[in-house]
Design goal:
Layout (H helix, E strand, L loop, with lengths): L5 H13 L2 H20 L4 H43 L15 H23 L11
Helix pairs in contact: 1-3
């Protein structure tokens, strides 16, 4: 069941392509070539405009492609974590889909787990194991 939009396909392909060492070396080569031509072109405004326009345009487009790829990866990780929670005996299903909660509810969960961690550390200091489920 692999269906993806043209944009997702483009974003994945572009991110994969642009992350290769050869692309980095090519970009570095272009910058070096531009720097070398500076003295030949008397460091003119056109010479500066070329690199400014090129780098700004590429950066602008890459931000959207990278964000799309990152969003998709994050969603996939969240789904996998949700499935682990869902399928683990004794796990709290209320923890599923936490990223969709408002900040106050999320902070409540955070405080609860910080308290559990603190209690577990205190028990460890006393030589008590911290494995298992703390709730009855």
């Amino acid at each position: 069941m692999r269906s993806s939009t043209w944009y997702s396909t483009l974003a994945k392909s572009a991110a994969r392509f642009c992350g290769r060492p050869k692309v980095f070396v090519t970009a570095l080569g272009i910058i070096l070539l531009w720097a070398i031509t500076g003295p030949l072109l008397s460091f003119s405004n056109t010479w500066q405009l070329i690199i400014n326009t090129l780098t700004t345009t590429i950066t602008f487009l890459m931000v959207f492609l990278i964000q799309n790829t990152q969003n998709r990866d994050t969603e996939a990780i969240q789904i996998k974590l949700d499935e682990l929670i869902r399928s683990t005996k004794g796990a709290h299903n209320a923890l599923l889909d936490l990223e969709e909660l408002d900040d106050d509810k999320l902070r409540d969960f955070l405080r609860r787990y910080e308290r559990l961690a603190s209690e577990a550390r205190e028990e460890l200091a006393k030589g008590i194991k911290d494995t298992g489920t703390p709730e009855p």
